[in-house]
Design brief:
Elements (H helix, E strand, L loop, with lengths): L32 H9 L2 H19 L3 H38 L3 E3 L16 E13 L2 E15 L5 E14 L9 E6 L7 H6 L4 E4 L4 H6 E6 L4 H7 L2 H10 L5 E5 L2 E7 L5 H26 L1
Antiparallel strand pairs: 1-2, 2-3, 3-4, 4-9, 5-7, 5-8, 6-7, 8-9
């Protein structure tokens, strides 16, 4: 009597490979600040740099007053910890921008000057970009994002000089196709009283105000062009869909300037988080795309 053969085991299923879970990229410039602060405060060198000056200064002052010595020593420690926090904050911002640039295929640049292409880039006594991100900032839109600042110097009644810092996050792109049709265009965030507009416009020499048939657009923006600008082309540029985008989808406090084919789109303050940077980049791309589309229509 033959021995029955053991049943053939089922073919092994395809080997399961667990997914590789990557660490989440920092979403803003503060995401890794706590990590860097904890790391720096855990270093022996940090406490040597903080503790030695505190002990030396405190010991010297103790000879005069114990209370004063202790207070000053604690103050030195507090200042040292504050410096460490500032270093951690800077390192966290560096990490965020490096990751953001790498993930979006952009080139990260350090502090630099931008070409003075539009009025915003010529304002103040000094102008510079703290960081730049260069490349295709939106689909089909080559340009750069920048943490831009201009400084204004003033002198008070006592002769003391003061500096005011005006910060913006901006996108830049070149749109040379539209130069002939729209040499200058300024779409600014509305400010001031409407009752004073006619009075203000009297003093405008090279620009004039444009009023379009959209109450929502007029509530949010003031639009100016060069005095010889073609109104028909401009009204076609601001199509109903473009107006809806400007009033409902553009970033809060968004504005743009176009001079000689150089487009600068911006929002106030340095936006150091991925969502806001993406929004500025997308908005710059949207305006550039609309300008190219309308310029192409004019050529056909």
């Amino acid at each position: 009597m033959s021995t029955p053969e053991p049943p053939t085991p089922p073919a092994p299923s395809e080997e399961f490979t667990p997914p590789v879970i990557e660490a989440a990229a920092p979403t803003d410039a503060n995401a890794l600040r706590g990590h860097h602060f904890k790391r720096l405060m855990g270093m022996q060198r940090t406490w040597w740099l903080i503790g030695v000056p505190a002990v030396v200064i405190g010991a010297f002052l103790v000879t005069t007053s114990l209370v004063v010595g202790l207070i000053v020593a604690l103050a030195v420690v507090a200042v040292g910890i504050g410096v460490v926090f500032a270093i951690a904050d800077s390192k966290a911002a560096d990490d965020f921008f490096h990751v953001y640039a790498e993930n979006r295929g952009l080139e990260l640049g350090d502090k630099t000057r931008l070409p003075a292409a539009t009025p915003l880039l010529r304002k103040g006594d000094d102008q510079y970009a703290k960081r730049t991100l260069t490349g295709e900032i939106a689909p089909g839109c080559a340009g750069l994002l920048a943490m831009y600042t201009y400084e204004e110097q003033t002198t008070d009644s006592n002769g003391n000089r003061q500096t005011s810092y005006h910060e913006y996050t901006l996108g830049m792109s070149e749109v040379p196709e539209c130069v002939d049709e729209v040499p200058e265009l300024y779409c600014q965030k509305r400010s001031g009283l409407r009752s004073l507009e006619r009075f203000e416009d009297v003093f405008r020499r090279s620009k004039r105000r444009v009023t379009l048939e959209s109450e929502a657009l007029g509530d949010r923006y003031e639009i100016f062009v060069r005095k010889d600008q073609d109104d028909v082309w401009l009204r076609r540029l601001f199509s109903p869909s473009f107006i809806v985008w400007l009033t409902e989808s553009a970033p809060e406090k968004f504005a743009f300037e176009l001079v000689g084919g150089s487009l600068v789109a911006y929002v106030p303050k340095h936006r150091e988080d991925a969502a806001d940077l993406d929004a500025v980049a997308a908005a710059t791309g949207a305006v550039a795309k609309r300008l190219r589309e309308k310029s192409a229509d004019s050529d056909s």
